[in-house]
Amino acid sequence: MPSSISRSDESDVAVGIALPQYGTVASPETILRVAVEAEKMGLASLWTSDRLLLPTRPKETFDGDPWPEIFATVYDPIEMLTFAAARTRKVKLGTSVLSALFQNPVTLARRFATLER
């Protein structure tokens, strides 16, 4: 068994952050500010997720409480990433959830191709 543990100067761990896409905090200005500052700080990635709708007359509650207002305003994940990509260069972009079954496959592929450019 070795008597000392050698560590590399570089780590395989990368830290990312979720863009503000829900509720009253979500706005074009806030999204861009978070994206630009995250890149300046050296964060590895920016993330979004997909949330389609807030029920207008929910039959069930959200864990026993009314549905949170935060779900009333939700930006589209791919559009947000494209918006952030226009102002950043090095940070990686990703979606943690994407409701692909609700999307036209050709349109979805074109949106991702546009984002990749």
Outline the structure in words:
- With 117 residues, the protein is α/β, with parallel strands linked by helices.
- The protein has one domain (16-56, 64-116).
- Helices cover 29% and strands 9% of the residues.
- It has 3 helices and 3 strands, in the order βαβαβα.
- The protein has helices spanning 28-40, 77-85, 105-116, and strands at 16-18, 45-48, 92-95.
- It has a 3-stranded parallel beta sheet, with helices on one face.
- Strand 2, helix 2 (77-85) and strand 3 form a beta-alpha-beta unit.
- Helix 1 (28-40) crosses helix 2 (77-85) and helix 2 (77-85) runs parallel beside helix 3.
- The longest helix has 13 residues, at 28-40.
- The protein is globular and about 50 Å long.
- It starts with 15 loop residues before the first strand and ends with a helix.
